[in-house]
Amino acid sequence: MSDGLDTRYLESLPGYNTRRAALTIISRFMDRMAQYDLRPADFSVLSLIGHNPGITSRQLCSALNILPPNLVGLLKGIEKRQLISRSSHPTDGRAMRLALTAKGKALMQEAEATALESDLSAASALSPGEINTLIGLLQKIYLAPT
Amino acid sequence: MSDGLDTRYLESLPGYNTRRAALTIISRFMDRMAQYDLRPADFSVLSLIGHNPGITSRQLCSALNILPPNLVGLLKGIEKRQLISRSSHPTDGRAMRLALTAKGKALMQEAEATALESDLSAASALSPGEINTLIGLLQKIYLAPT
DNA sequence: TATTGTTATACTCTATAACTATA
DNA sequence: TATAGTTATAGAGTATAACAATA
């Protein structure tokens, strides 16, 4: 740092470093995705629906750590934009099967390419090998049994 | 995952993985630090004050990416708890020098040990060498020039 | 004219309780 | 009795505009 502050203790904490890096990457992500009017949660929900047609709200919530009440408004918004469709579940009358519309598929094809490009450019100080190493280490943390 | 969802695209994004890991570590951090009634921002502000006695609000804001209006209430809270003191700046009448009180020092000595222990246990799926590698890669990202 | 610290305020994100309809 | 989806609501976290005092 050029301000001469002692930040050594904070920089020894895995959590501090992980959060700072996440904010750096996501800040760029939000700038890049504004052109599609997609915030991070919209994007991850749409991406998961796109790769898993027929997924239910509950599955989205547990996969993405979103609380059910907070998903309601999000789904309402992307449905109103005609990016997703809901159809009744064949065996469970309570659940709804979610899928991308043609419009949603077209948007996400572009958005996913932009997102990957954004994240890779945010990590461009790292070599491709280092990025793979980083992702592997991060997954060890958040996939570890509690 | 045991739910059979295809999450391969999201797991290819550095930002998604970094955010998921950060939330995992910080969730544990918040649980562990509740005994001291410290939230992440309180902790990082107090830690930086402790390691940089005489630091100003503005320096805290730029080092921690906090906006000045949002620091006001935070400082008011930890000052009311008698964890910090404010003294007038010797050369700049606008600024205030911040420092930990004896009570603040005692609290932070415990809290910093607990925080490090919490973060290391959250990353216990990694070897010490892997943790060092991870921290180095993360710093390359958030310290890189924009 | 620019900067430090502040107030007021708004918007987003996240969290809890309670309801309905189905299982 | 438990679960999927929903409503209402409250609390954090984060953002901008504008001000007084000082540089």
Key structural traits:
homodimer, 146 residues, mainly alpha, 6 helices, 61% helix, globular, DNA-binding
Biggest interface: A-B, 59 and 59 residues
Question: Structural class from helices and strands of chain A?
Answer: mainly alpha
**Unreliable spans of chain A:** none
Radius of gyration of chain A: 18 Å
Give the averaged pLDDT of chain A, no decimals: 96
What strand order characterises the main sheet of chain A?
1-2
Number of strands of chain A: 2
Biggest β-sheet strands, sense, barrel of chain A: 2 strands, antiparallel
- Helix content bin of chain A: 55-70%
Q: How many angstroms does the end-to-end distance of chain A come to?
A: 35 Å
Strand content of chain A: 5-15%
Shape of chain A: globular
Please provide the ordered H/E string of secondary-structure elements of chain A: HHHHEEHH
Characterization of the model:
Two copies of one chain form a homodimer. Chain A is mainly alpha-helical and 146 residues long. Chain A is built from six helices and two strands; from the N terminus they run ααααββαα. The first copy, chain A, has a two-stranded antiparallel ribbon with strand order 1-2. The longest helix of chain A is centred in the C-terminal third of the chain and has 21 residues, at 102-122. The model of chain A has no long low-confidence stretch (mean pLDDT 96). Chain A binds a DNA duplex (23 and 23 nucleotides) through helix 4.
Could you write a compact summary of the structure shown?
The first copy, chain A, has six helices and two strands.
